[in-house]
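Quick one, T. Sequence first:
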Amino acid sequence: MKKLTVFAALLLFVAFTSISNAQIQSGNWTTKVGDPGYNLDNNTGERSMTVEVNFTKPFEVKPKVILSVTQIDGDKAFNQRYNVEVLSVSRDGFTVKIRTWADSKIYGISGYWLAYSE
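Structure tokens:
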């Protein structure tokens, strides 16, 4: 029984240490007509934009980043094609790349991000 208690205490200590060392930050990203260089609403073919995100506090190690799209404003006369991906992750921030193609016209697109390290 004593060995089981010591093992459980050790397991809790390891779990707590792992959780206490984890870092998490989150926020929103957005781009729209009027932003410098915005081109997702013009012409046809492949077009892309980037959005720079800076963390409020640098991570101790390079984090993993998860993205979501929460809003899109597009022209109803055309199909809505888009791709959103994370580029250039560092301890200080990352870049979101938003891409569309063919005749899609996107007037604005926003999302949520979550960065974490273990």
